[in-house]
Amino acid sequence: MFDQILFPVDDSEQTAAATDHALAIAAEHDATLHVLNVADTNQLSLARVQGDVVDALMTEGERAVEETASRARQHGVTTVTEVIQGQPYTTIVNYAADRDIDLVVMPTHGRQKLERFLMGSTTERVLRRSEVPVLTVRPDTDSIPEYPYDSVLVATDGSDAAGAATEVSIDLAMHAGSALHALSIVAISGLGDDVLDDEGFTAVEEEAQEVVDDAIERADESGVVESNGAVEHGISIYEEVISYVEDNGVSAIVVGTQGRSGVERYLLGSVAEYLVRTAPVPVLTVQTET
Prior knowledge:
Organism: Halovenus aranensis
Mean pLDDT: 85
CATH class of the largest domain: Alpha Beta
Radius of gyration: 20 Å
Oligomer: single chain
Structural class: alpha/beta
Number of helices: 9
CATH architecture of the largest domain: 3-Layer(aba) Sandwich
Low-confidence stretches: 110-120, 259-269
Order of helices and strands: EHEHHEHEHEEHEHEHEHE
Pfam families: Usp
Family: Belongs to the universal stress protein A family.
Domain UspA: 1-138, 149-286
Strand content: 15-25%
Helix content: 40-55%
Protein name: Nucleotide-binding universal stress protein, UspA family
Strand order of the largest sheet: 3-2-1-4-5-10-9-6-7-8
Distance between the termini: 25 Å
CATH superfamily of the largest domain: HUPs
């Protein structure tokens, strides 16, 4: 399923917390792990500095990738290491596209409260632009679920992006022989007055059920050992997803995002973004291009 995995590294605690997870995925799939450090020489504070500072960044990057590569070798994982000067998120996205990467694994900043999350972080910018699926791991959770996952949840709304996410979630469940949960949320806050009457609400609920049933049918046809479907209702879609995860012991979430050509077109506050920030389990985002 995954042959080439990219794991960008630095010397942060967040990277250290995500390393074991990235190694477990690479080992499980017998994949090559690309360990990349980006020496951020585009910072204004460094733009006017010559020689020594840039060399120090490269040296620190080489140390970071070698430490991770050494741990990978202990797990029998084949690695490719590289240190590249440039803008971190652009370099990561371009590297993934140029090397036929199947999966990017990155940590989040690990904030307990949503308002403390650093908008514009490297991870978030990669999520916005990467055409390659990105698996994010929150380092501040009590424990990161082991890979392969015991159960996988796909959040679906019937869109093309959700369809792509469903296919990936089925592949994950098939590989691990794990349970697949298909969940659709009817967001009450997003329904107009013309829909909130009994007849309109029933129609919306039936449509959501059809979406879930379709995902379950695709899972069953693919041979997934256990599949479960549910339609939930609530004010907040992402909060309902997280509640389902916690109530059902789900190990990972797969969600689709819509591709955007630039940051100004990205829908800030999307369900995928909120899940990445707050979900207690790894979140795999799968993008489709507009």
